[in-house]
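lol so apparently i was supposed to do this last week
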Amino acid sequence: MKIPPVKGTKDFYPPDMIRRNWIIDGWKRVSVRNGFEEYDGPIFEYLKMFQIKSGDEIVEQLFSLKDRGGRDLAIRPEITPTLARMVNQQINSLPRPIKWFSVPRLCRAERPQRGRLREFFQWNVDIIGVDDVLADAEVIFTACDYLQEVGLTPRDIKVKISSRKLLAASLRSIGIPEDKLDSLYTLLDKYNKLPTDTFENELSKQVPDAKMVRKILDFMVVDDINRIDINVSRDIEAAVINLKVVFAALETMGIKEYCIFDPSIVRGLAYYTGVVFEVHDICGELRAICGGGRYDNLLRDFGGSRIPATGMGMGDCILEILLKEKGLLDKQIPKKQLDYFVACVDCENQAYIGAAIKTVVKLRALGFTADFSYKRVKLGKQLKAASERNSKYCVIIGDEFVKNNELVVKDMATGQQELIEFNKFFAQL
Ligand code: HAM
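anyway here it is w/ histidyl-adenosine monophosphate bound
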């Protein structure tokens, strides 16, 4: 009986692993150079942890299970609640600001589609303990730093930035009651995901007044922050000033060209409280490559003190699709290469085989990648195998080895060969 892989999961064959590792190594390198330290948590947590503040959408997508003691658990769909829990646990001993990163494997029971799987990797960077919007700008910069490094330009992607504070203040000024804001955020987050008619219908169900609906729709399409009327309310004015400081910091950081104001960015997760952002491909065909924002109440909601926090998550799936589409993936991944392939002139001769194995083991002990053929084939075939493995050198064990303890070292690129004594060869490496 053939068993297929589970729907929405991905098998990583060796070439896929090379791509995955290349992406993840880049995430880690960029995190470290931006001053973040790595952390991780368990892949499952108590179910209630994700029910506290992540929002309905993610709760519906949970893979949940009961352990033998009857405890309700869930596989992590995101790592931010774990981060909040971990920071709360050691809050008095952690030096601040907390600048942490992680690359968790996450599971969400979503309907699998292009760029959306049920299991994926997500790069997270978070700054905890900083109220200043400079921290929001740093998070955005770190995401851009990576995207820029892998070759994506402002012609490929845009960082769309808005603010939950601005949205809340604008909705209040339109007349939306405070207790309706949360459910409205969930719908407004779908502005760019639902067909216009469906979105407007849903909006009319939540906001029966047609004039208010119009005002909300007008707000969602403002494309210049200077067009927001700051005289409407103090809260709107404060949110606009805040956002302008973020944009000024991003300009100073040299990534202005990537960043635009877009009030339709709301974010699906319920815990965001301030600046929010998403990175999208310019064609808008794919879902967000990355998303994040400020969540100043989450640590308090998890039983800690009210400590400000901001961060982002970037998934591997959409990023990989985009890099492939732009021809930026495979050309940047270094070709697989072997340092040494060790071949024998006579593969039936046990003395030669023994010497080849010894040579391989010694090379490996010195940190080189080295291999040999398991098949007892002629030298020509072994040399062919060496070039198929993209080996830099081929060491040939032949008669000279038996007579004078000498090896032939062939440079596979130039074809040049050198005869060298076994111990001298290793001494010069
Ligand atoms: P999120 O918007 O749910 O945010 O996810 C961030 C990114 O993870 C998405 O933009 C997407 O690239 C990737 N992603 C999400 N779901 C899937 C999926 N099913 N398949 C493939 N990729 C996916 C969060 O998770 C927040 N916790 C991020 C954050 C950290 N905010 C503050 N700190």
